[in-house]
Amino acid sequence: MALVSNTGNASYKSDLEGLFDTLQQQRSDLLKMTRELQLAARLLAVAEARRLGIDADPDDPRLARLRDSSNAILQRAAALEIETQIADIRTPPVTKTETLLQGRITDESAKATGHVKVTLVDDKGAPVAGVEPVETDDSGYYAFILQPAQVDAIGANRNLTLQVGSDSGKVVPSAAQPFTLTSGKVTVSETRLQPGELEKLRLRPGFKEVMRAAEPAARTATKAATKAAAKKAAAKKAPAKKAPAKKASAPRTKAAAAPKKKR
């Protein structure tokens, strides 16, 4: 654990920021470790299910319990991944007069979409003059830091929204909610992209692309499964081999004792 010491009023703010950052990092590390343990437990469950599947009946309740456990572990691992992404976020420091607009760009499950450009636009979809686009990080987090003059130029009652993407493809998310900015305040705008929007921005592969990529592996798995099933069926139909009969051994006779010579 990192050692954080307070050296007086002069460094109180920076010491507090360092303590908070240390706690955030420790939380992130613990979440990652927990997720890895969950995935390791799933590997054990899958291996045990395969072992039982060799000899056990397909309707064996143990197999159903292992499948349910494996699915539950995957759901927990997905939730821990999202929590880890949130724990990795570091909010930039701002002054009392600066305005912070921040949030995450995610899919419907709240998972980060990846690195993407975010542009501040008005209600007509036109980029706001004087505000440069920003890019999300690994957690899907973005942040605009606006100076008082920029907020005044935008206007306090002007409805704004976000545009996601670049020249190769960009959308104003259908789930995005309009908002206004107030000088010196923090505004949070969380945006979740729909599957069609993710596909348009090439942030997620489309269904056809997934199927095309999965075809070779599916063919290989199908051949292996067919071969294994045929081998198992042939083994059941094959008559059991009879053990070779033992040859009857001739009865042992004691050798006749040689007659003793008379002296």
What would you say this structure looks like, in words?
The chain is an alpha/beta fold and 263 residues long. Among the domains are: 16-87; 99-200, Carboxypeptidase-like, regulatory domain (Immunoglobulin-like), CATH 2.60.40. The chain is 44% helix and 14% strand. It is built from 5 helices and 8 strands, in the order ααββββαββββαα. It has helices spanning 12-55, 61-87, 148-154, 195-200, 207-237, and strands spanning 99-106, 117-122, 134-135, 141-146, 160-166, 169-171, 186-188, 191-192. Strands 1, 4, 7 and 8 form a 4-stranded mixed sheet that branches. Strands 3-2-5-6 form a 4-stranded antiparallel sheet, with no helix packed on it. Strand 5 (160-166) and strand 6 (169-171) form a beta hairpin. Helix 1 (12-55) runs antiparallel to helix 2 (61-87).
